[in-house]
Specification:
By secondary structure, the protein is mostly helical. It has two domains: 2-296; 304-543, no CATH class. The chain is built from 19 helices and no strands. It has helices at residues 2-40, 47-84, 88-92, 95-116, 123-138, 150-169, 171-180, 184-216, 220-224, 227-258, 265-289, 304-311, 327-339, 360-388, 400-412, 432-455, 467-480, 489-518, 523-543. Helix 1 runs antiparallel to helix 11 (265-289). The radius of gyration is 25 Å and the shape is globular. The two termini are 37 Å apart.
Length: 548
Amino acid sequence: MNLLFDIFGYLEIVLRGFGIAAQTVAVGSTLFLVLLARPLAPRLTSGPVIEARVMNIIAISAFALAAIEVAALAIQVAILSDTMDISLLSASSANFAVAAAVRLFAAVSLGLMATTEQHSPRPLKWIAVALVIVAASVARSHAMGRLGDRWELLLIGFVHQLGAALWLGGIPCFIAALARLGDGMAWRLVGRRFSLMSMVAVVAIGASGIATGTFYFDTAEAIYGTAYGLMTGGKVVMFLGLLALGAMNFQLVERLRADPATPILRLRRFAEVEIAVGITIFFAAASLTSLPPAVDLPNDRASFAEIAERMTPTWPRLKSPDRSDTSIAVLQAKLNADAAGAQPLRAYVPGAGLPKPRNAADLAWSEFNHNWAGFLVLAIGVLALAYRTGRADWAKHWPLLFLVLAVFLFVRSDPKYWPLGDINWFEGLRDTEAVQHRLAILLIVGFALFEWGVRTGRLTKPAFTYVFPIGAAIGATMLMTHTHALANVKEELLIEFTHTPLAILGVASAWGRWLELRLEKPGSVVAGYIWPICFILIGFLLLTYRES
């Protein structure tokens, strides 16, 4: 139980992110079925096939949501029971548990309907179950805990989640439908209907997002000076990127109206990226729900001057401090000396739930790590760009630099643990931050080896080419939810001011590479230049990273 409690915070964010994604697809697919697939089925040759495919997507996503809800609910109830010293039955009667149970029951019901009622003529029944899922989700949001304006915020949250489902949750069904339509007239019909649905959804998302901001942000400083505001800003940036992709798809749909022979490959590829970026937004939203609203944090806000000072580029730190000067090493040395031959106390116990102490050497150590990682990432971006020009074939080995980066991070990311520190490497599995670092290292090693194999012709299967963009996207999403156990709230916020732009650029680079692989010329050429430039920018941000 102690270990579960140690990692609960981050585990809850991960489960919530998957839950939001599954819910969005389940509800969005249901709306796609009711508003598009079934009404248009008589006018489409492949209408029954599309409807069956949508049913499958509903079933898979609904049952996935149910499984995620079971896992999350079990952990939350167990933690509540243990920390409050109450029975599991009492913990299960908490408001969040009741809402989770309702969401679970509705998800299972929707999944069963999708597998047993293939030709149900009652669309209101499907919509009702989907709305219950959304309502139960909103009942566990920040809005439910407000003393004032609760019902207004609940309604706004409901509209926000429903809008996201209508647009982003319907995209998998839209992609599946496009793959099964055989002529331009059918593409035009489906594309036009989904475009109208998406426009309604965008209005709902935008209006509800602005309305939420009027309640949760009391001043301009609350927007840029709090972790809640920063994460919201990251969501907005990615949402604007989705709007750009959606606008280009809308233009293509309008061209389809005039000319049914218009190619739709770009429509499908942009839709793929839309749902992928949407998943990152879901995890950002999950992380956001773990933060208190900005209006509730009048203190510990970072001023504009503090942010500007931290973000001002500085010369990279080229020399590392000695590990023995870091705070935990210093404290452990003192405890060893005070023990006078007896068994000394441990300066740091992984997973104890206490914030890590930090001194000037810790800050310098972190800056050195980030700055030298920046050198490597910058070199990766430059070499990838050189190779993309077709004039530097030798530069195709750029993925090997990721292996150098992985080794560097393995040795230096957590100096408390082996191989540099005195604490057993396996004990670090109780440290949430250390676990995140290790997962990132494994991810880097994996996509580096695959991409090098692809670039050198050693791996020729088309599927292998997608490992790099998918791995990079996972890494960017992990960075969006990366946590630091720091005692100073403002200091943690200032660190996030560097991590969030890195995550957004990581998302752009990952799906830029995806579009390079999936689009035809000239789109593939443009995308092929975009993602190396994103890596160059990431490298520059890491080079200028500072904490002191």
